[in-house]
Design a protein that fits this description.
Blueprint: H1 38-45, E1 73-75, E2 101-103, E3 109-111, E4 115-120, H2 124-140, E5 143-146, H3 150-153, E6 158-160, E7 163-166, H4 168-180, E8 186-191, H5 193-198, H6 200-207, E9 212-216, E10 227-230, H7 233-241, E11 245-247, H8 253-260, E12 267-270, H9 278-290, E13 295-300, H10 305-318, E14 322-326, H11 337-342, H12 347-363, E15 371-374, H13 380-389, E16 394-399, H14 401-424, H15 428-435, H16 439-445, H17 448-451, H18 456-478, E17 492-494, H19 497-503, H20 513-520, H21 528-531, H22 538-543
Parallel strand pairs: 4-5, 4-16, 5-8, 8-9, 9-13, 13-14, 14-15, 15-16
Antiparallel strand pairs: 1-17, 2-3, 6-7, 10-12, 11-12
Helix pairs in contact: 2-4, 2-14, 2-18, 9-10, 10-12, 13-18, 14-18
């Protein structure tokens, strides 16, 4: 199995000329080759090759094959009984499955589906598709996350004495969601180092009425601050003057000369590394609550196990409302490509550690925060498995690229329909009813005047989440679990011994062993459980058992 694919990827628009060696370099590197590989293209464009391309127009997720992912587990089904529903074939039908979930310690918020968007921050792709995704989240009853650097990147932001006092872009984002919100779901605003210095938490909570605020330690795709690319010198200067790290330095005269002759075609804006300190964390949480935040969350990334332990401990001590843990393999497209593939703990491994740490907290009688897992999740089987693997602690999943993809495709289809309707002199919103399977449901739900204002991207997102809801209902009904709170680790089996060892989920050949013994009076003699744990599964074959 090829686990890593160095030196060539569609994400960096690169490839090898011939079969590569383990180094990723072509077995025969030819003098005269124009350099289609990452090394060759880096010789021409340098640091630009660090990132997925075309930057700002794509979302990108890791293409590394991790040794264990969610496909190494299958969902258990049963033909007996029902949990959370009367065991009656006329009542226990899959549309009756409840996929809603409620979170929050003191101030509750309910979601119609146990998912929320990835952080949509200061990138062009997030800004362009925000309206569709905010409306899509509101009408679907889920949470949308407004990511870091939005105020700092807003060209129209008013900043006085180093603090933001007005940001038209942030105001637009919050207002769109709140205008369409109907009881379920919420908007989270996220902050990093620069946001904290600019006073973004105070601005959005006190001035814009945001009730759910998130501190960010990192994400599963990278362990450095966020980055975007800047198209011109003036924009680079503006952000450099606002305190961001901008490369190359736009205030340097040599940089300016290079820019004039097009030796430099773009700039990079980077955020600073956060420096986590336990006492400061608690003080920050208390400050957020004091200025009016009703719910506070922490987003952490695929850091080493000791940092996950810190996140769990701090979240417990501060009694925060949500802890989101983002495993390696995810990402929304702005992260350095090799870092996205080669840095951090993969999602399944990280969630298994999270389960262990939270179980320890529970055994000590300490507060256990509600958790969410992120990192390359896209469809309903991922949702079920993620909830089951971390049950009963993981109650939500964060889905970045998948939800964004649905919104983007919806917008593309909307543009094509608009062009077609213009040629045929047809009503566009009526054409939506024919083209989008779920548009009719929205037409029944809203008055015509409001339905007419729903963007195609929002309909695409709503349609995707509708499919996800029914798909999850079907998996849950098959497991005879009619509410999310009933999903458990017993609803999974591990398909390989290694997956069983990593997770503590029974190997498929050992599942239900005790119940089988009760039914048949029979017990398999070659179970992994009997053999005990093996650090190296090659020892298992050598043992002869």
């Amino acid at each position: 199995m090829t686990i890593s694919k160095p030196n060539r990827s569609p994400a960096t628009l690169t490839k090898n000329r011939v079969q590569p060696a383990p180094s990723g370099i072509c077995v025969t590197c030819l003098d005269g080759c124009p350099g289609p590989c990452e090394i060759g293209r880096s010789a021409v464009r340098g640091r630009e090759l660090l990132y997925p391309m075309p930057f700002g127009k794509v979302t990108a997720g890791a293409d590394k094959d991790y040794p264990c992912d969610f496909s190494y587990f299958n969902i258990q089904g049963t033909c007996v009984g029902a949990v959370g529903m009367a065991p009656d074939s006329d009542q226990a039908i899959f549309p009756a499955v409840d996929t809603s979930v409620e979170i929050g310690v003191k101030h509750k918020v309910k979601l119609s589906f146990p998912a929320f968007t990835g952080a949509l921050g200061s990138t062009d792709i997030a800004r362009i598709h925000w309206e569709s995704m905010a409306i899509g989240a509101a009408i679907s009853g889920i949470i949308i996350v407004c990511g870091e650097n939005v105020c700092g990147m807003d060209p129209q932001s008013e900043i006085k004495k180093g603090r933001v006092v007005h940001s038209p872009e942030m105001e637009r984002r919050v207002k769109i969601f709140k205008k369409w919100q109907q009881g379920h779901g919420d908007i989270i605003v996220q902050a990093n180092v620069e946001d904290g210095r600019l006073g973004v938490p105070e601005y959005v909570i006190e001035k814009l009425g945001v009730e759910f605020f998130e501190l960010k330690w990192g994400q599963g795709a990278k362990n450095i601050g966020g980055e975007v690319k800047l198209p011109n010198l003036e924009r680079a200067k503006q952000l450099r003057n606002r305190g961001y790290i901008v490369l190359p330095d736009p205030l340097d005269t040599m940089t300016q000369e290079q820019y004039k002759v097009r030796g430099i075609r773009e700039f990079e804006r980077h955020s600073r590394l956060g420096m986590v300190d336990e006492d400061e964390f608690y003080k920050t949480i208390e400050h957020l609550r004091r200025v009016g935040a009703k719910r506070v969350s922490l987003k952490t990334g695929a850091y080493r196990p000791a940092d996950l332990a810190r996140a769990v401990k701090f979240a417990s001590q501060a009694r925060i409302d949500l802890l989101t843990v983002d495993g390696a393999g995810g990402g929304t497209g702005m992260s350095p490509w090799r870092m996205m593939n080669e840095w951090g703990i993969p999602t399944v491994h990280l969630e298994c550690l999270l389960y262990e740490y939270l179980s320890h907290l529970q055994s000590k009688g300490e507060f256990v925060p509600t958790c969410a897992i992120a990192g390359g999740l896209s469809l309903e089987d991922h949702v079920f498995k993620a909830l089951a693997l971390g049950a009963p602690f993981v109650k939500l999943v964060c889905m970045g690229r998948s939800i964004m993809t649905a919104a983007m495709v919806g917008n593309v289809e909307g543009k094509k329909l608009a062009e077609k309707c213009e040629r045929e002199e047809r009503d566009l919103k009526e054409a939506y009813l024919e083209h989008f399977a779920e548009a009719a449901a929205l037409r029944r739900k809203y008055p015509l005047s409001k339905y007419a204002r729903i963007p195609a991207g929002a309909i695409g997102m709503y349609s995707y989440l509708s499919r996800m809801t029914q798909g999850l209902q079907q998996f849950m009904a098959g497991a005879r679990k009619f509410g999310l709170e009933h999903i458990s680790r017993g609803d999974l089996v591990a398909l390989t011994p290694e997956a069983a060892q990593i997770s503590g989920i029974p190997y498929v050949m050992d599942a239900d062993a005790r119940e089988v013994e009760k039914i048949l009076g029979y017990r398999r003699s070659s179970s992994l459980t009997e053999m005990g744990p093996y650090a190296n599964f090659k020892d298992l074959a050598a043992s002869g058992k």
